[in-house]
């Protein structure tokens, strides 16, 4: 197995809870990727492998309440700023001084929080499908029913999780979907409550102070990730590039074009 093909799973403790991650590749040029809400680190495995093949040590993290990380049932433990601190704790655990930090949807907002609190640890940000002001109403309409079900109809969440557990694993995107459906009602309710009723994203005045270079990826035809949010974010950030996806799933199912854009951006963050 060559260095860029190495895949190592690990974990560490943050504020008394276990957080799980996977490392792809080796080296001093590091990228950290975080996932969307209720998804897991598995969603970024194809991109992580491609970045590793290009010589970047790439780490995917299950944020608290997701995947193989612990899932506490207190809503106050879940917020975008708290998730940002978990990324920094990962860097500390692995003794990494600086990294490119990226993510999708919730993970995109987490990357922004890292850029706010620790720009000196951040070589660049990859922000795919950020969730800002234009998405709040659609987000509430989408996730409030899930919060209601988890709080008051937990047997429905447990039933879906049970059915998902019966699906054979082995396919990348089948596994991503089943990972997402395998929820625990109490922790899912706490996660959604903490995220929906907390700080969704840094406000505009704060976004204008985020100094690390950023690649913002947006797309149209998705109310939860409106094109206007991505476009506005790229205008707000002091040093941002903008890439328009053809659809919300382009990077998942037809990834070549956007992957090249991301690899090029990451490569330039490590140029002398």
Strand order of the largest sheet: 1-2-4-3-5-6-7-8
Q: What's the structural domain tally?
A: 1
Classified in CATH, the superfamily is: Alpha/Beta hydrolase fold, catalytic domain
Mean pLDDT equals 94
In the CATH hierarchy, what is the class? Alpha Beta
Going by CATH, the architecture would be: 3-Layer(aba) Sandwich
Q: Assign a percent range to the helix content.
A: 40-55%
What best-fitting shape do the alpha-carbon axes yield? Answer: globular
Task: Quote the CATH topology.
Answer: Rossmann fold
Q: Give me the strand/helix succession.
A: EEEHEHEHEHHHHHEHEHH
Please outline the major beta sheet: 8 strands, mixed
Keywords: Hydrolase
Domain AB hydrolase-1: 30-140
GO molecular function: hydrolase activity
Protein name: Alpha/beta fold hydrolase
Overview of this protein structure:
This protein is of the alpha/beta class. It has one domain (3-269): Alpha/Beta hydrolase fold, catalytic domain (Rossmann fold, 3-Layer(aba) Sandwich), CATH 3.40.50. It is 43% helix and 18% strand. It is built from eleven helices and eight strands. The protein has an eight-stranded mixed sheet with strand order 1-2-4-3-5-6-7-8, sandwiched between helices. Helix 4 packs antiparallel against helix 7 (185-196). The longest helix is centred in the middle third of the chain and has 17 residues, at 136-152. The radius of gyration is 17 Å and the shape is globular. The mean pLDDT is 94.
């Amino acid at each position: 197995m060559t260095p860029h093909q190495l895949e190592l799973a690990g974990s560490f403790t943050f504020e008394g809870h276990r957080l799980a991650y996977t490392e792809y590749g080796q080296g001093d040029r590091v990228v950290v990727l975080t996932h969307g809400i209720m998804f897991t680190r598995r969603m970024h495995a194809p991109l992580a492998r491609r970045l590793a093949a290009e010589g970047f040590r790439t780490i995917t993290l299950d944020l608290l309440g997701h995947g193989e990380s612990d899932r506490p049932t207190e809503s106050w433990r879940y917020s975008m700023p708290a998730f940002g601190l978990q990324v920094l704790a990962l860097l500390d655990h692995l003794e990494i001084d600086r990294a490119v930090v990226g993510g999708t949807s919730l993970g995109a907002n987490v990357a922004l929080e890292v850029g706010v609190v620790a720009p000196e640890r951040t070589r660049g940000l990859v922000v795919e499908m950020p969730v800002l002001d234009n998405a709040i109403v659609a987000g509430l309409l989408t996730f409030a029913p899930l919060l209601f079900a988890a709080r008051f109809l937990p047997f429905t969440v447990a039933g879906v999780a049970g059915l998902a557990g019966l699906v054979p694993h082995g396919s990348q995107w089948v596994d991503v979907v089943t990972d997402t459906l395998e929820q625990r009602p109490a922790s899912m309710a706490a996660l959604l409550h903490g995220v929906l009723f907390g700080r969704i994203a840094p406000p505009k005045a704060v976004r204008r102070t985020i100094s690390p270079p950023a690649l913002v990826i947006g797309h149209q035809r998705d109310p939860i990730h409106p094109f206007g949010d991505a476009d506005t974010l790229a205008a707000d950030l002091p040093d941002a590039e903008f890439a328009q996806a053809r659809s919300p799933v382009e990077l998942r199912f037809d990834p070549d074009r956007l992957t090249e854009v991301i690899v090029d951006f990451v490569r330039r963050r490590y140029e002398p």
